[in-house]
């Protein structure tokens, strides 16, 4: 029987293990932390009964991911819930741009932009499954839906800062700029519209759901599916040399998968990887970072905009110009005075996370890579700007620095939670430009982390794609 080792058990490592095991491969997963899941962890951090997501919290691509659609995780107890409003982006005048499930529902609230909004997103919303087939594949592949992908490509090639000029109202421009900011880079660069277009379409097609019981429920379900297929999972073990795998798996594995950053992969493969590929891995740039703050609040956030009070996710920054300026500062290594802040109100869709009138509020701001300061006060002030009285609702809070993030998960280099800088070159070359970006240059060893296509997010497609390639390349 073919044997495989998977180093790392984030969503991509687990997806690779499940894909391999379904094909009859004997798989061992080795995880350095005490439990599998990577960023899919939840805990009662501050108050009894109040459950926080420690990293990933809202999952725009989970229910539309081709990999997740192929696995019956519901049989292991996983369920999703949706808030009434998927996303709200409040402005200083008390209004907000909002994303709802359904392109017509979203467009109806956008006034003069309604017709153009509907024309722009309806083709992608109505064919989200077809779109996901191509956008979650490696950049250089034979298109399954060429006309749809070409239309999508024409939209995403334009810098987000230029793309949002099509919209006539401040609310619509701010709404799109905020979603585009999920790319974690300057919004005046080519391809910076890519994440904004995809996540906006996904929100209207499938919503931005939260996992009932916390993101840990996704990890538990994926782990249960893997173990049902015979996958062995070892936790609390750090792999520093691939020779360890011989002992850990009971023999040298036929194929190996690294759910790690490119830099960590280069360290593991030192002396074996071709020089050119090793250089590319070591030069792979981390992106801007996240600075998380976890609050426990009493009664809810007093947003001025009504839609924000009903939204599972709230983008806090200001108008489109504010978002562009904040992302530009982060890319230049400057901490913005008014950063882009993402507020997760998961409890609105999943009340089981709350304890009475105490609710978890999981928040992070975009900050420069490796930012060494404390952004807690700046983040609190940003929320207070759009929700006067917010400070009075705070019962307790805790923050994590970029160093804390990397210490908790070495893949989060300098606090980068998306697996690498998303400038136009590296967005396509993750970590190298190739039809087979999962190959490390070492026979039988594949990279399967979020630093490979299609990138960050709880969708499992990087791991699934890497495992699919390995299965195709296995000797018969």
**Mean of all residue-level pLDDT scores:** 95
Main sheet?
7 strands, mixed
Q: CATH superfamily of the domain at 3-42 and 213-284 and 411-473, please? A: FAD/NAD(P)-binding domain
- The CATH architecture assignment of the domain at 3-42 and 213-284 and 411-473 turns out to be 3-Layer(bba) Sandwich
Order of the strands making up the biggest sheet: 7-6-12-13-14-11-15
What would you report as the Rg, rounded to the nearest angstrom? 21 Å
Helix content estimate: 25-40%
What class, by secondary structure content? alpha/beta
Subunit arrangement of the protein: single chain
Task: Assign the CATH topology of the domain at 3-42 and 213-284 and 411-473.
Answer: FAD/NAD(P)-binding domain
Task: Please give the CATH class of the domain at 3-42 and 213-284 and 411-473.
Answer: Alpha Beta
SS field, number of helical segments: 20
**Share in β-strands:** 15-25%
Low-confidence stretches: none
Number of strands: 16
Q: What would you call the shape?
A: globular
Distance between the termini: 12 Å
